Amino acid sequence: MIVFETVLGMLAVGVLVLGLARRGHLPYPVLLALAGVAIAFAPFHVEFHLEPSLVLALFVAPVLLDAAYDTSLRDLRRNWGAVLSLALVAVGLTTAAVALVVHALVPTIPWAAAIAIGAIVAPPDAVATTTVLQDVRLPHRVSVILRNEALLNDASTLLIYRLALTAVASGGGVGAEVIAPAFLLSAVGSVVAGLGFAWVVGSLTRRIADAPSSIIFQFVSTFGVWTVSERLGMSPILTIVAYGMTLARLPAAYQSARLRIPSFAVWETAVVVLNVLAFLIIGLELGAVIASAPPGELGRWTIVGAAVLATVIAVRLAWTLAAALWSRRQLKRNGRADLDGAAAPDWRSGLVIGWAGTRGIVTVATALALPGDFPERGMLLFCAFAVTLGTLVIQGPTLRPLVRMLRLRDDGPVEREVRTARVAMADAGLAAVQGDAGPGAAALRQELEFERRVASEASDGDGRPTPPEKTFRASVLAKRRLRLLELRRDGTIGDDAFHVLEEELDLADLATATRT
Description:
Distance between the termini: 47 Å
Shape: globular
Helix content: over 70%
Number of strands: 2
Order of helices and strands: HHHHHHHHHHHHHEEHHHHHHHH
Radius of gyration: 26 Å
Strand order of the largest sheet: 1-2
Largest sheet: 2 strands, antiparallel
CATH topology of the largest domain: Na+/H+ antiporter like fold
Structural class: mainly alpha
Number of helices: 21
CATH class of the largest domain: Mainly Alpha
Strand content: under 5%
CATH architecture of the largest domain: Up-down Bundle
């Protein structure tokens, strides 16, 4: 019962934090991290511990799947150099630098354990960065790099993390005999397995016709893919990434709007819930660790945590600034003023990408997944949370003002593409009703012609049509809904009839709302 009550309490805290974040226009991970600190230093202690083998599957699998599903392969191909430089080089440098700092400050810690903490704190978090920048329009290329980096660097750092754990378990050595077979199996076998899982799941998805079954199946298949790949000795991280990116593009797995809309809402909620639980659970774990720490140990952990935080921020900034300036120099050498139509990288974009390095749920989850007998586990947990808290509190609130101060502007490629697609879709609709003389076809033709004209004549924005009757339709729907509520209230209709008509009004309301 205590576990159930604790989870309820954490979710209630999450609701409060989300409300405060909306009111204060703050990224909610910042407040979650502060809530975790409050729990860690609270005078009470609640026993709550998750098995390390469960933590990664529970917290990381859905977040990775959600990010992979939304990844644009086209944009990834166009910016593969910048993305890979962050996901591989920046992550590798950060991991190595943190390992060196930790080992210098704590010489007794095994190198494999120092590398593990480096891998834990290396990857920035997509959810944290997205919430920080939700009210800021960055240049499209910068946004693409940040979103895709967050996906691929999770895969690379979690692979290093798992290899480091294997090395610790095997006696502390990180040799080629450990790394090479694991890397080959992860890189090749996991990607192939992800493609196969996507094909099987996609074939089954189209057979499910109701929203609850579809959503449950999505979660079962996500955790199932993770578990099976882990049992087969492959990398569940790479498998989930390949699975999610493939599943999003399989025609057989494409859902109807009736299934897709509630599905997206549930997944968005699930990611928020997982963030809430991860941050508050690590607060509970840290509370026990801090309470049992010997005298003077907390001061040592604070020094190490501060040093790791400074290293993480400095290495990323140094790399992104150097990479941006080098890319700009190469473009000038080749006589080019832009990069495939996008603004050329410069120190401003490098600074923003470097400063958008807030850590989040992946760092917290991988720290929680450390085995109980891991060397210096208490200190490593403290360092991981210090980096997460520090980047969120320092970089999170200052990133938006930094973007505005540097005057970086969105160059609008997405809006241009939306306008082009609106014209093409309107043409397809007009072709479909061509030759039909019915009254319904005439009304639809008029609506499509209006939509095409607005999109083709727009010079900015996404060309979304705003029919003159939109406001009128919305007011009529509001009156109809009030009348429906009165009919149920006075007993003229029962709840069964009410819900049938309510669903019809909801769909009409949704269609009207999309035209704002």
